[in-house]
Amino acid sequence: MDALVKAAKAEGKLTVIALPPDWANYGAVISGFKAKYNIDITSLNPNGSSQDEVNAFDGTSRAPDVVDVGQAVALANTAKFAPYQVKEWSDIPGGAKESTGLWFNDYGGYMGIGYDSTKVPAITSVQDLLGSAFKSKVALAGDPTKSNQGLNGVIMASVANGGSLDDVSKGVDFFKQLKQKGNYVPVVGTAATVKSGQTPVLFEWDYLSASHGKDVPTWKIFVPSNAVIGGYYSQAINKQAPHPAAARLWEEYLYSDEGQNLWLKGGARPVRQAAMTASGTVDKTAAAALPAVPGTPQVPSGDQTSKASQYVVANWSAAVA
Amino acid sequence: MTAAGNPAFNAAARPLGGGRRLPLTWLGVVPFFIYVGIFLLLPTAIILAGSLIGPDGSISLSNFEGINKPYMYKSFTNSIEISTISAVLGAIFGALLAYAVATGDPKGFLRRSVMSAAGVVAQFGGVTLTFAFVATIGTEGFVYLWLQQHGIEMYPNGVWFFDLPGLTLIYLYFQIPLMVLVFIPALDGIRPQWREATESLGGNAWHYWRYVAGPLLFPSFLGCTLLLFANAFSAYATAAALLTQGGVIAPLQVQALLTSETGSSAPGLAKALALAMVAVVLVVMSLYALLQRRTSQWLR
Question: What is the complex's ipTM, to 2 decimals?
Fold first, then answer.
């Protein structure tokens, strides 16, 4: 570990990509790493997609050293990653990592529906959104034809409407109905659209939705008990990382108790949460602040995600445009 | 170019005064050709090459077969539809405005103000333009909210603003002034004497428009409409900022294919689609050039 710190400090730099500061508390994670190791971080294209992240692997000194990507992108690009196992490797459950360390889950959460409780009535089921109180109010936090988060929103709607992880068509139908009722707003929801009030009802990962509370104090999150869709993101190191030691040190930092608790403070559920709860190193206040999950979580596999994506890509425009 | 091919020889023979005889005029356009090469020809070549590389890395036409899907067609026909509507409406309103300006005092306030405003507005596009519209008539826009406070709901049947009609509206904002700019030279070419000649030969206004001004202006009008079509067809940033979901029009479909993080990323297919767009613009611009040539015979 000391040798790694020394080598990373000698490199002095780290390039990360697609990490919005308000996403899972990444702003604090980045400044925490900078302060601890005195290594400069260049943060590229904060609002990029997972695919943008691996597209940026161009072999130059400007390429990102590490990426934080959705499952589908991680599985499709293993040839571009370097295997690495962090110190706490054994804490990561078996299904949440590639056995040699090409990718490993970092944090996740559940798909929720965030809403401004002053603008719409309390939501008790996904079907509520079809009511007239929700006219021009309901949005997704990503384009489901290309964004992992947007797609999971549609998968959640599908499961809540009688579909399953293998059948996303019910979700597409649901958004088609929303569109026909005039309730659907085809704007990708962000912190800015929530703040301005353009997207008062938003399908989003619960940990990202929780961050809107600081702009809209009456913001609430609903996770339907019949459709608890979980999703994890994964860390991976660029095989041709310009700063290989800093990249590995960054991973060590993320998976240390300090890094994991920072994510937890951002409302995301870090992959080592169970192990840290057992050993007592978890930030208990932050853990208690997480929204309660009322049902059994289901997590789409890479294959299910890919099949759902194909269906949505082929049918989304016809349904909502 | 032949003489320029031997600069060393010439320079050696006449070190000082010789330069005057050497036709160096072509030097002036070298930056232009370098520019065109890097920013137009090279990207086109990259797209062409990339579109021929299949998902498995081999050379094939499979990407072009990939376009053969209903939603791909749909994005393409949407693109053509919105470009046509915004071009035709832009051409009609732009031509009317241009006519009003052209028949006025050539040095008058109206002409000077309209021309400079058109020059500025025709170049106003992209994210800033979309933002201006969102802030005005979006669901939190001040005009929308003001109307709502006065009992008028702009979108009683759902918000069409974030859809193709909204995009058409935004495109018109730069299409109309562009039409004014490109159509005015044709209107200026019409001489008042022709109208006088028509009238002295017993023709009325209908005869003048039907047999004199109409046939003279029509090719130029059509050509300008095509230019507007190409302008709308290739616009990207304006649409990307407004329509953030789904590959509703062709350029956004290309974007989706390049950035999908849910396993639907297909760079080769994106390039094949881009190449199809290049083909459409190529056809349109060739027709435009033909029509311009025809127009310039008369109106100069």
Answer: 0.73
